[in-house]
Amino acid sequence: MNFTRWSARLPPIPGTQRRAAARTELATAPDRRTDGSVPAARVERLADETTLVPAVDELPAREVLDRVPALVALLHGGDHRLAYLNDAYTTAFGARPLGEPARDALPELRELGLLPLLDQVLRSGRPRTLKSRKAPDGRSYTFTCTPVAEPGPGERGTGPGGAGVLVFATDVTDHAEAADRLRASERRQRETAVTLQRSLLPQVLEQPDDLRVAATYQPGGTEAAVGGDWYDVITLGGGRTALVIGDVMGRGVRAAAVMGQLRTAVRAYARMDLPPHEILQLLDGLAAEIDANQIATCVYAVHDPNEGRLVYSSAGHLPILVRDETGTVVRADEPTGPPLGTGGWMHASGSVPLTPGSTAVLYTDGLVERRDEDLDEGIAALERALAGATGTPQVVCDRLVRSAGVQADHDDDVAVLVLQHPARTGPDGELFRNAALELLGGVEAAPRARAFASGVLTSWRFPPELHDAGVLAASELVANSLQHGTPPMRLRLRRTDRRLIVEVTDGDDHLPRRRRAEPADESGRGIAIVATIAAHWGARRTPDGGKAVWCEFTLPPKRP
């Protein structure tokens, strides 16, 4: 095959022909000078340049292609017969027979899947590029396939006009290896962040007596850095449960570390049994101290089975959704302050009913936020999904995640916390009982409280040891309230399938504390006695300005 008929014909560079013509005119123009004058130096320099710089059209294409370090192959016709290989290509893959089809002469192109691309270039008449493909020689190349035209009868050369493809392969091995190292580093960092994130989340959720709880966490896809989503369930004692979910506005290990510190702080503050908005006030100041550049959203909620409500406070987080026993979904009102870490804001608490048969969902924005949708549309879609999601809390979690289209390549972390307040009937309902007595004060209050507690515990068929301990605890708590508290006072007894709870409320907000009584003291031993005989005890302030003091006894396991 005559290669001269397939010499690459480069298009003229804009302005090249004009500059070449100008240089030619300057070189051949006669000297224009008057008597005794000297030709301009500028003209001499241009004339010299003309003799040193040849025009692009005068460069021999084959000599140029033979010397370039890139791999070059010229293919002719519909079956891509090999017309030319440059020295770099021959050095990389060896000599190949000219005139043979590329599928036979150039097997490396077939292995790289380049033959269909050659067909596309011939059909479209437009160049195509295949980036960073690893060749059989172990190196990586970027292939550019450019259509070329064979000269027709009216042009230089002879023979009918035809078409071919010039294959130009640039060695990008160093760039490919650097990219591989970068991806491997990013993959290791992501795996580290995911491992840290999962280790900081609760490994086993606490299961309260009165609630059924489940949660799920789905990290973002491989192209997204892991965020700082977290959740937790904290039993507060006295039958009450705290639930929290939050999202640190950041990515990677740093966000996960901040999340871990906030989660630990929430558990510590929860033991103080403060109202939700006071918990967020404490977290707000702590978040600013941990990292002034990191902010986080958070919802902290408390469930009290005696009230049948979920009391909560939100720091810039998405609203809680609650489905009642009829299937109606309500969106909790938002007494929402700014995110944690911004400071200077007084948070407020709100409440939403959580009656038996209800299901509540707390979630992070990864579940409902999409780039092409308004956030309210995502929340509305979640409401519709919750209305039809029945079953256990774990089943509800899985259904909500699937309905939102969350998959392994999701672009954000997702955390979901589902809690149900089951409606108990029949034998199961007998294990959850309540009894309360209003105390009017006076000398008859303590004997009346003891008699009430004894009768209730007898009707609940507790063993004698537990019966006597419960009556003693009720007597001491009532006596303490009569001595140090103010009306109104109430004694409440509550049993679950796992524990007996004794609680006394009054109108004074001074919290009792356990102290050592001296032998000569006539009082001060009531709380010490309760702390000794009960499994747990505690005290908290109530929203009406009073306090509640409680203790718990663990029930013996059921006999098979």
General description of the model:
There is one protein chain. With 560 residues, the chain is an alpha+beta fold. Helix content is 34%, strand content 26%. Strands 7, 8, 9, 10, 13 and 14 form a 6-stranded mixed sheet that branches. It has a 5-stranded antiparallel sheet with strand order 2-1-5-4-3. Strands 6-16-15-11-12 form a 5-stranded antiparallel sheet, with helices on one face. Helix 14 runs antiparallel to helix 15.
Question: Secondary-structure blueprint of this entry?
Answer:
Layout: H1 16-28, H2 41-52, H3 61-67, E1 71-76, E2 81-85, H4 87-93, H5 102-105, H6 107-111, H7 115-124, E3 128-134, E4 140-150, E5 162-171, H8 173-200, E6 212-218, E7 228-237, E8 240-248, H9 252-270, H10 276-290, E9 296-304, E10 309-315, E11 321-323, E12 329-331, E13 336-337, E14 350-353, E15 358-363, H11 375-387, H12 393-403, E16 414-421, H13 426-430, E17 433-439, H14 445-459, H15 464-484, E18 489-495, E19 499-506, H16 526-533, E20 536-541, E21 547-554
Parallel strand pairs: 10-13
Antiparallel strand pairs: 1-2, 1-5, 3-4, 4-5, 6-16, 7-8, 8-9, 9-10, 10-14, 11-12, 11-15, 15-16, 17-18, 18-19, 19-21, 20-21
Brief descriptors of the model:
elongated; 16 helices; five-stranded antiparallel β-sheet; alpha+beta; disordered N terminus; 560 residues
